[in-house]
Amino acid sequence: MDIDAWVWWLIGAVGLGIPLVLTAMPEFGMFSVGAVAGAVTAALGFGIVPQVLVFVVVSVALIAVVRPIAARHRDGRPQHASGIDALRGRQAVVLERVDAGGGGRIKLAGEIWSARTLDSDQTFEPGEQVDVVDIDGATAVVM
């Protein structure tokens, strides 16, 4: 039983798709698409040299075009802060007098937090707006 060349190209495409799934390296997917293009070339009756050339050209073109676009999209994504990093820079309302001693309370992001001032000579009275500059354990450092 003689297997046509296009079947071998499809087997190669599947073989290149497996590392894509296992390693999440998109280059394997681009090689896999190149192998499919080689299979189409073989199915149209072209010889081995045009098949390999189509595989190489399609694979290289995809890598040259898709990778830079993907890199721009990855680098351009805004980084979303979470946890205490998301609280830094936010404003809060003083509920109980806040000073350097750390006995005060603020309302930050809908929650009650203990707070202390960044500068030892500052104090904030209930109702004032403060900026959160840091989180030290379970205490917000404000100014």
UniProtKB/TrEMBL annotation:
The keyword Cell division does not apply. It holds the Pfam family NfeD. Its main location: membrane. InterPro entries: Membrane_assoc_protease (IPR052165), NA-bd_OB-fold (IPR012340), NfeD-like_C (IPR002810). The chain crosses the membrane at residues 6-22, 52-70. It is a multi-pass membrane protein. The keyword Iron does not apply. Residues 85-142 form the NfeD-like C-terminal domain. It comes from the Bacteria. It is found in: Membrane. Keywords: Membrane, Transmembrane, Transmembrane helix. This is NfeD family protein. It comes from Streptomyces flavochromogenes.
